[in-house]
Specification:
By secondary structure, the chain is mainly alpha-helical. The chain is built from 11 helices and 2 strands, in the order H-H-H-H-H-H-H-H-E-E-H-H-H.
Length: 267
């Protein structure tokens, strides 16, 4: 089915581009040391092995979800809700803890997580829930950016873009889309919805990682990377006019990574 593209389709990406500098500045103000998530050293095959390690964890997570979907669908629902609410609480508390004192941070974080849980239980995947989820995933993407060395970031972005292709056409996402009923409803807590369009939480995380990586080098590169990401998103939307589902990562990520690498070579 063909779709008419409107500005509404750009809301999730525009919000991501807007929030990345905000959360990056909060993290800078906090001057907190984030854990190094690269297990292998940043030399030789280290970055590739780091990407393979994280991809393996993601694949195992996906296999667990498929298993629960086919055998224990109620357990899968509880599993997704628990992960969503815990992540919302943890990331909210991390950033709020930089801005306000501990007790207030806990109160606000618990309140945000409780509101999210209420919306999930009531199956009200509203604009409010999407805003909360988007902000949290942007914050998580920026934490990942500060937790990986540069070469590992590139390896991870490329690896997950390739995995996204496999997942959509052969893997977990394909399996889920073959059952558009209960399975799609179960995954709603992991989708950022703005009007007619939606982004998966993984897409928001990696877009944020990519943009914060560019911002760490220069504001001009951040602007260039944002434009490249928007162009890639536009190409995705154009393809979606003719297809039901496509991998959201490869085109925007590869295009933006190319801009970043050209910038590094020239400057």
């Amino acid at each position: 089915m063909k779709r008419t593209l409107t500005l509404t389709y750009y809301f999730p990406l525009a919000a991501t581009v807007t929030l990345v500098p905000v959360f990056s500045e909060i993290l800078r103000i906090g001057n907190l040391e984030t854990p190094n998530l690269g297990v292998f050293p940043e030399k030789g095959m280290g970055p590739v092995l780091n990407a393979v390690l994280w991809l393996s964890i993601t694949a195992l997570f996906g296999l667990l979800m498929v298993y629960l979907l086919r055998r224990y669908i109620n357990a899968l629902k509880a599993f997704i809700m628990a992960i969503s609410v815990y992540t919302i609480f943890a990331i909210s508390n991390f950033y709020l803890g930089i801005l306000v004192f501990f007790e207030l941070s806990m109160i606000l974080s618990v309140s945000i997580a409780s509101l999210s849980l209420y919306l999930l239980i009531k199956n009200r995947y509203t604009l409010l829930y999407s805003i909360i989820l988007l902000a949290v995933m942007v914050g998580l993407g920026i934490i990942f950016n500060s937790s990986f060395e540069d070469t590992t970031k590139i390896a991870v972005l490329i690896a997950y873009s390739l995995f996204d292709i496999y997942s959509v056409y052969k893997g977990m996402i394909k399996i889920i889309f073959e059952d558009r009923g209960a399975a799609m409803t179960l995954l709603s807590p992991l989708l950022v919805r703005f009007g007619p369009t939606a982004l998966g939480v993984g897409d928001v995380i990696f877009y944020s990682l990519l943009l914060s990586y560019a911002l760490g080098m220069s504001q001009n590169l951040f602007l260039s990377a944002s434009i490249a990401l928007i162009v890639g998103h536009t190409l995705n939307l154009w393809i979606l006019k003719h297809k039901r589902i496509i991998p959201a990562l490869p085109i925007p990520v590869m295009l933006t990574l190319s801009v970043i690498q050209i910038f590094k070579i020239l400057f």
